[in-house]
Amino acid sequence: MFKGLEHTAIASPNPEKLANWYVDHLEFRINFTYAGNYFVRAKDGSMLEIIPSEGERAAQKMKDEGIRHLAIDVDDFDAALAHLKAKGVQFYTEPFETQGNRLVFFADGDGNYLHLIKRPQPLP
Questions:
Q1: What is the pLDDT of residue 63?
Q2: Stated pTM of the model
Q3: Are 122 and 82 in the same domain?
Q4: Residue 65, Cα to own-chain centre: how many angstroms?
Q5: CA-CA distance, 85 to 59, in Å (whole number)?
Q6: What mean pLDDT do residues 70-92 have?
Q7: Which contacts qualify for 76-79: CB closer than 8 Å, 24 or more apart?
Q8: What is the rounded CA–CA span in Å between residue 30 and residue 85?
Q9: Which residues of 86-100 are buried (b: 16+ CB within 10 A; e: fewer)?
Q10: What's the number of domains the chain is made of?
């Protein structure tokens, strides 16, 4: 009956600008727009919907309650990290390894938490 997550929504004060950030930095493509909303699709088919925000953004910390980050799967961790550094992306951590996985936390164009991940083996 339930097939999985079709998309995740992010509210932004400038949805078009943030959608283009995902295009320019993470190789997503804008695949659908309507009424100021932008859908962006990654190479693996996963999607984000970027919607107009209302009001001011609350302060956030890495482990506040609720959804905390989006993990970006990469084929080549070092190349992806170098690409983001060359684009001037803000990093929250230095790259690190845990349980054989390579990770680094960084910000999207609106300051939302993302992280690169390279797993030696996909999760079951």
A1: 81
A2: 0.93
A3: yes
A4: 18
A5: 25
A6: 97
A7: 76/118, 77/102, 77/116, 77/118
A8: 23
A9: eeebeeeeeeeeeee
A10: 2
